[in-house]
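Ligand: zinc ion. Inputs:
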Amino acid sequence: MKILDRYNTAIHATSLKSESDTTWSDADVLGAAGLAAQHEALGIALARMLAGGGRSDVVQIMTSEVYERSFRIKARITHIQAGDIAKAVLAWYSHGTCQPCGGTGFARIKDTPSLGDECKHCGGTGRIPFDQQFRHEHRELAQWLHDQIGATQARAGRLAMEKIAPLLDF
Ligand SMILES: [Zn+2]
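Predicted complex:
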């Protein structure tokens, strides 16, 4: 099992007492995630959000990351625009499903459970087209920020594993 999947249970646990019959106690998982957050703040904030937490930490971290990035690639955006890009990328990540086809990629046929031809709204991808959410000059930054979501989650998971390993007795 992946450690950040266990985070969901751990975060909702009422007792943080270590359970000797499980490999990872909730306290161990939360401790490891806390240590990993020092280096992968976004990955851990995303894990917390996916476990039912708020979005504000995630938006704040994504905003500053994309704002910093804009200086590095010399694409001038304001801090407010950085916030808008962060919110839109996060919204697409969380609810990017194409509504007309319900994410199936096929057109729905009224009053039947069968599916028709390729959905015209999303071109059969089942997702709302990403690029169209952003102004042309912001697309490179938006795509970069979107890529960070997957990358930071993978890095945060690996880092949390490294932090938890010494806590386990084999
Ligand atoms: Zn569709």
